[in-house]
């Protein structure tokens, strides 16, 4: 047995190790290889690999191989380097944007201390831009960035920063491919560059829902090993004018009001959402309007089937293929099947993914899928404070948040919302006939906010940004973007099963 080198990791002999043995499992995850020293007849070679920890965390571990001769050590090093070079999914050059003001303002420190050293060890080169103002990253990606030089884009920040990045990338991809990004009926071209998220925000919902944790080291390792996870994107239009894209939550009513209120408290950091959440829960505003939607037909999965979207999800694979092959026919077949619901709502939420985050580990729609071409439209009708609290608390417990008489959920491909004050004259007349005097009074009070009555309209929270319009048309674009992630893994604890 060769003596251990003076590193913290245990030594293993290279000679008898054959592919298929334990070391070969680890070698699949190798991202660093360097022959560091030579002892008398012994070559020492530390190899870094990924080790799974608890709660979906990944860590970089090291194993030290020793070889009896320098020649055999070099053969091993060359062999492993060749394998790594042949792996086309691993990025070699990345464009990194850091928001220094997201979350607890730790983005720069997190990147420099936790991520940059890992990229350097893995031989990934980077071009780093620390943003100087909001939309800096978006505008740079739209017009200036030389994207051909890079294998991916990395976003250091929260959901808002990620939103900037995808707005820049999607726009650029459409313009480069001569597609009109402003038209709601256009089939958008998918972005070829993958996006990596190093979480440094307040909610980090997109990172959490695609990786299973909001841990910067784990995300860096997913980028290094070259993971890929497709993701749906919703385009949002108002009167045929493009407003924004959304990948996680589009929320009117409760979540719109929480966001509006919390923006005034940005100085508080992530705690602003707790305070505004409590305030808006107590305020208990409801809003009137009309929701029309195109139900998703012929696809696998329903919002209440309990099937979670996990790594290698068959629902996403099946539906993704169905939509890409039959997109045209599918849209035409479904035209005319629009359904309409008119009512008073405490919240209207569209979750294009589970929206799991540390505040709500299973998310707003636990069975929503990352890449199935649909969004889960959740309507929470006017109810008592007590009942609304029951619904909200179910975001944090195991109970079904949709198993309540005042909540309904529909898996949809497209939906529209019109607040009551924007409805056409004929619609309003219909409402006046249907409704009683008290409701007419609430409409009148819209125009007289000084009287202290409830406001008639809320705002849309679009992935943490406020939309400028309330009447919107939302369409899901199946698998428009790709992330350096693999979806949440469901593994038996302690098992390493990545041998492929
Ligand atoms: N240099 C900058 N100065 C000011 N604002 C910036 C800068 N760079 C980016 N931004 C903006 O900061 C906003 C918030 O950033 P980010 O999403 O990173 O953090 P957060 O809002 O705290 O987290 P989360 O979105 O996860 O709740 C984004 O909308 C982004 O456009
Ligand atoms: C009385 C209180 C009961 C407690 C109920 C807790 C429920 C928590 C659900 C959290 C759901 C977050 C959905 C994610 C939305 C993100 O796209 C967005 C951008 O980061 N974050 C917010 O809008 C931030 C929204 C934060 C809302 C609290
Ligand atoms: Ca989806």
From TrEMBL:
Record GO biological process: ceramide metabolic process
GO CC list: membrane
Annotated ranges, domain DAGKc: 89-240
Pfam families: CERK_C, DAGK_cat, PH_CERK
Gene3D superfamilies found in the cross-reference section: 2.60.200.40, Probable inorganic polyphosphate/atp-NAD kinase, domain 1 (3.40.50.10330)
InterPro entries in the record: ATP-NAD_kinase_N, CERK_C, CERK_PH, Diacylglycerol_kinase_cat_dom, Lipid_Phosphate_FormReg, NAD/diacylglycerol_kinase_sf
GO molecular function, one term: ceramide kinase activity
PANTHER family: CERAMIDE KINASE, SPHINGOSINE KINASE
Name used for this protein in its record: Ceramide kinase
Natural source organism: Salarias fasciatus
